[in-house]
Design goal:
Blueprint (H helix, E strand, L loop, with lengths): L3 H27 L5 H12 L3 H14 L4 H13 L3 H14 L4 H13 L3 H14 L3 H13 L3 H15 L4 H13 L3 H14 L4 H9 L22
Helix pairs in contact: 2-3, 3-4, 4-5, 5-6, 6-7, 6-8, 7-8, 8-9, 8-10, 9-10, 10-11
């Protein structure tokens, strides 16, 4: 015969079970919620330099949609802004692995490694890309980050390699070389490379800004054919 005490115990157990199931269901519902308000909140917070708020919003987004590299990268950038470099690297690395061809994600990962003092790891990553792919963008990135890391020799070699592969057809290698020379107080070389940039992209606002900021006098003969440009002998 069932006693009153047994009945109460059974009822209490059933109630607890229902509560636990309800909590599980609520948790499941939360994980299938709409993440997009968190994207907007995070972006607005980043614009307003409210980095902790941005971090919290992006974190909630990633909890709901962990497979989206743009938001994973945004989370990493918010952590960079909070000087939480090691935590940032974890997320930036995931974003870059999810979309290996995205140069912005790779730039941000290298920035995190540099700020964390993990320069050897940064160089291994960058040199791995130049060895495996070796395109202009990879060499430019190596040159740019080598300069930031205080290694002007590696920077110059990498940027010259980028210009050679590019065959003097794009403005970016010429501007990067000009900037490096200017930072090293080699104004003659900086001006020479800026002239080459002006030849490639005479209407470039980046070229115009450097001419103005560096107080360089120009004229009809200012543009200069890039040293790496190959002349077709058939023409």
């Amino acid at each position: 015969m069932t006693t009153m005490k047994q009945t109460k115990t059974t009822a209490r157990a059933a109630t607890i079970t229902v509560l636990l199931l309800s909590a599980g269901l609520l948790g499941a519902c939360a994980n299938t919620g709409n993440p997009y308000p968190y994207r907007s909140q995070g972006n607005e917070a980043m614009k307003g330099e409210r980095y902790q708020e941005a971090y919290e919003a992006y974190s909630r987004y990633i909890e709901l949609r962990p497979g989206e590299p743009d938001m994973r990268n945004a989370l990493g950038r918010s952590l960079l802004a909070l000087n939480r470099y090691e935590d940032a690297i974890e997320h930036l690395r995931i974003a870059s692995s999810q979309d290996p061809e995205n140069g912005t994600y790779l730039d941000d990962l290298c920035e995190g490694l540099l700020k964390a003092g993990r320069t050897e790891e940064m160089f291994r990553l960058l040199r791995g890309n130049t060895d495996n792919r070796g395109n202009v963008g990879d060499w430019l990135r190596l040159g740019r980050f080598a300069a930031k890391a205080g290694d002007p020799d590696t920077a110059k070699t990498a940027l010259l390699t980028a210009a050679r592969i590019d065959r003097g057809m794009s403005v970016e290698p010429q501007l990067e070389l000009a900037d490096l020379a200017w930072s090293l107080n080699d104004k003659a070389l900086a001006t020479q490379r800026l002239r080459m940039a002006a030849y490639v992209a005479p209407r470039s606002p980046d070229v115009a800004n450097r001419i103005k900021n560096w107080n360089i006098t120009t004229g009809p003969t200012f543009p200069l054919v890039p040293a790496e440009r190959v002349t077709d002998p058939a023409k």
